[in-house]
Amino acid sequence: MARMLSIKDAINEALDQEMSRDPTVIMMGEDIVGGTGAQGEEDAWGGVLGVSKGLYGKHPNQMMDTPLSESAYVGAAIGAATTGLRPVAELMFIDFMGVCFDQMFNQAAKFKYMFGGKAETPVVIRAMCGTGFRAAAQHSQMLTPLFTHIPGLKCVCPSNAYDTKGLLIQSIRDNDPVIFLEHKNLYQDQADVPEEPYAIPFGEANVAREGKDLTIVTYGQMVKRSLEAADALSKNGIEAEVIDLRSISPIDMDTVIESVEMTGRCLCVDEANPRCSIASDVSAKVAEEAFGALKGPIRMVTAPHAPVPFTPSLEDVYTPSSDEIVKVATSMVKG
Fold first, then answer.
1. HSE toward the beta carbon, residue 36, CA cutoff 13 A
2. Which residues pair with residue 209 across a beta bridge?
3. Nearest residue to 177 (alpha-carbon basis) of 108, 251, 247
4. What is the DSSP letter of 137?
């Protein structure tokens, strides 16, 4: 049975159901338990934005508050995963990966390879990403490309509540380390979400909107803006196909290539900085595999190659908008 649920609540429900199903699923993070017992409080805060609020009362033996040391508890979660547990470590903001990146890319990502395929590290590292909260340069980055460069890491960035629940459940059940990125500007967006648990496989993009004139390839918050742009383009006689990658490592290039071969045009939209981004990666693969089908140059709409500004007006300009997508898409089709 489906009902409307926000992305924030879809995450909460997925965690609740997986901890109920499997006692080896545990949570670690800063302030996910903090507040319980203080001044009569009976519930935990549930993280910096309260995403896991209400879970500690149901699963007190599976949730652990950690010191303010990402390197310590992310490393502990990775170690716990090698012993048979399935930890979900909450990194408040993806920007904080800088202090625990070694544990991710030099340890978790390489255990299976270094131990002849015998080692499994079923750990999920959740983190908020992206702009929109006026949180400035150290709390607003879209660092997805850094993880997709690392063999051994899987990386997911959903755009809606239905995908969020299914992809998080898949992440928890997966036997490899998964970076699960939640766009904080989408937390309140709602969609129909089934009550029962379900998993969405990695590496299967979703055609969020069908069209014949050009292909827009994107993920995360940019799916929402690309769909808004596609609606505006349709009023001007341009039908855009919007592909939501959902997981960006592994990435479903087959769906992208099939679409580009049909439309003849490819626009890659990415909130990350342009150099070595998901947009540039997709652009390169399309040029390699579908060059003969192209009717014009591949184009990209991305953030500029600069830190995220704090000033609201500047952050709005920094973040790719639906108007910008419309402008570039129109020029691709109509010249």
1. 18
2. 242
3. 108
4. T
**CA–CA distance, 144 with 146 (Å, rounded to integer):** 6
Q: Is the pLDDT of residue 305 over 90?
A: yes
Q: Helix, strand or coil for residue 124? A: strand
Burial of 7 from C-beta contacts in 10 A (0-12 / 13-18 / 19+): buried
pLDDT for residue 43 is more than 80: no
**Cα dihedral 167→121→76→106 (10° resolution):** -100
Residue-level pLDDT at 322: 98
Q: What is the pLDDT of residues 197-235, one digit of tens each?
A: 999 999 999 999 999 999 999 999 999 999 999 999 999
Given this model, what pLDDT does residue 318 score?
Answer: 97
How confident is the prediction for the chain on average, in pLDDT? 95
Which one of 18, 30, 70, 315 is the catalytic residue?
A: 70
For the whole prediction, is pTM greater than 0.90? yes
Is 139 marked active-site? yes
- The DSSP bridge partners found for residue 109 are none
* CA 300/CA 75 separation, integer angstroms: 36
Report which residue type is found at 115: F
Q: How far apart are CA 103 and CA 127, in angstroms?
A: 15
CB 324 within 8 A of CB 301: yes
Q: Give every CB contact of residue 95 below 8 A, 6+ residues apart in sequence.
A: 138, 139, 140, 141, 143
